[in-house]
Amino acid sequence: MSNLFDPLGESRRRFFQDAGGGFAALALAWLESQRTGLAAEATAPESPLAARPSHFPARAQSVIYLFMHGGPSHLETFDPKPELQRLAGQPLPESFGPVATRRNVAANPLLGTKRTFQPFGQSGIEVSDFLPHIAQHVDDLAVIRSCWADSVNHPQAVYQMNTGSVLMGKPSLGSWVSYGLGTENQNLPSFVMLPDPAGGIKGGPPAYGAGFLPASYQGTQMRSGTSPILDLDPGADRAGQRQRATLDLIGKLNTQHRADRGNDHELAARINAYELAFRMQSAAPEAVDLAQESAETRTLYGLDQETTRDFGTRCLLARRLVERGVRFVQLYSGDVNGWDAHDDVEANHKRMCSQTDQPVAALLTDLKRRGLLESTLVLWGGEFGRMPMSESGVGRDHNPHGFCYWLAGAGVKGGTVHGATDAVGLRAEVDRVHVHDLHATILHLMGLDHTRLTFPHNGRDERLTDTAGNVVKSILA
Predict the structure, then answer these.
(1) Which of 141, 95, 88 is nearest to 113 (CA)?
(2) What percent of the chain has pLDDT over 90?
(3) CA–CA distance, 66 with 381 (Å, rounded to integer)
(4) Per the CATH hierarchy, to which homologous superfamily does domain 48-225+290-475 belong?
(5) Quick one: average pLDDT of 272-276?
(6) Pairing verdict, β 328-333 and 455-457
(7) By the 8 A CB rule, do 458 and 208 touch?
(8) Is the pLDDT reported for residue 357 higher than 70?
(9) CA separation for the pair 289, 276 (Å, rounded)
């Protein structure tokens, strides 16, 4: 009996084979063979990232997720509030009811913004003067002004916006998309994460992890420069046929090792990682080689300016990756503090907007002129918004009760505003959009029914949206 629970871990099928002469295993195999759809396809170890059909015709083939880490203020960007300006310096009126806040800021006076808003484009969507470049693209944007979430703390909020849950250990949005659709380029990862070079993410790697999905679907960090992925270069003494022969031998031994261990996803992922890493040794450096881009394109993204160079580089990399068939690319703006404007929202957002406004607008321009915006979904937003009450007199605390996101590109009805917060921007009030609704909409645009994209885990068919989520149909073209 000791070998049934050895440290290597045995599958349930192996357990039943040893314990019941294989009859239970036959029953289990039959039950598992009855499972249909993505859950069965995506766990096949031979090619976990092979392109797979969607549930229905997809409008978007890829996603670029611009994550403003730290929580950008909707009140300084996409949600003008004249009433907040009128009430600035006064306590929050009792008519708004009690509100749970951190650091007891609920009792602080309301803080008006120094920003001015004006309408842009044919749609007349109002945008802050912090974002003059993005403002030129409002007719391509669907601005959701009624988002809300469940956590007031960064790590849990980052998890929820990325995984649908405030708890660590659930699969991220990019992992679910990779699991459901695979990739169009077998020489690059399906899900790439481009971190801010200044620092890490609140909550860490679980925000882009695969959770209980097979490990092949977790996000891969990629950097600019000649070494986009750490430890990828084998060195001159191990390149070419010598490395190929080494990998062939390792692959043969790994396959023999796995044959006796059933459907071990971790082991299958490790085997596939060797092959993908070998293919990426030539594909990844080429993908991040910005010297191939014209001087006009590099200037468009702001690579010639110190302020915009970092984020502009990541935006340009994102375009190059989706151009090469990468399914999901996530860019982070902001280090461990980022857009977290507790002390001075004006100074913080002036800095963060100046770093990102031109590159984001350039990304939209570039995708559109190359015909890629028709098949690429672009998202912009953070883990929550900011409170209308002041903190430290000039800052704003976290606000998960109401904030903004915008979408652009494939299948999105541009020049659209959905929902609204209340008169001071405290809570989402009209046509509210929860995180689950946003995720359901993203998956829908990718051709995936969020209720059918499931994975069996601990006796339950898990999904990104748990038991909730409705597609926001008003923003669909």
Answers:
(1) 88
(2) 69
(3) 7
(4) Alkaline Phosphatase, subunit A (3.40.720.10)
(5) 63
(6) unpaired
(7) no
(8) yes
(9) 19
Longest Cα–Cα distance in the chain: 78
pLDDT of residue 103: 76
Helix axis angle for 265-287 and 306-323, nearest 10°, is: 120
In which element (H, E) is residue 403 found?
A: strand 403-409
Q: Which helix (H) or strand (E) holds 147?
A: strand 141-148
What b/e string do you get for 215-252 counting C-beta neighbours within 10 Å, with b at 16 or more? bbbbbbebbbeeebbeeeebeeeeeeeeeeeebeeeee
Q: Is 33 exposed, middle or buried (0-12, 13-18, 19+ CB in 10 A)?
A: exposed
Alpha helix (H) residue ranges in 198-330 = 240-259, 265-287, 295-300, 306-323
User: Which residues fall within 8 angstroms of residue 252, CB to CB, at 6 or more apart?
Assistant: none
The 3-state DSSP class for residue 21 equals coil
Q: How many degrees, rounded to 5, is the angle at CA 221 between CA 217 and CA 222?
A: 125
Q: Is residue 74 predicted with pLDDT exceeding 90?
A: yes
* Most confident option among 88-102, 195-209, 455-469: 455-469
CB contact at 8 A, 385 and 157:
no
The reported pTM is 0.85
Distance CA 325, CA 338 (A): 30
Contact 152, 100 (CB under 8 A): yes
Residue-level length of the chain: 477
Q: Which residue has the higher pLDDT, 106 or 458?
A: 458
Separation of alpha carbons 321 and 185, rounded Å: 10
Count the neighbouring beta carbons within 10 Å of the beta carbon of residue 396. 29
Q: What are phi and psi of 260, to 5 degrees?
A: -95, 10
Helix (H) or strand (E) holding 16: helix 12-20
User: Mean pLDDT over residues 408-419, rounded?
Assistant: 97
pLDDT band at 368 (very low <50, low <70, confident <90, very high): very high
Higher pLDDT, 184 or 253: 184
Q: Look at residue 116 and tell me whether its pLDDT is greater than 80.
A: yes
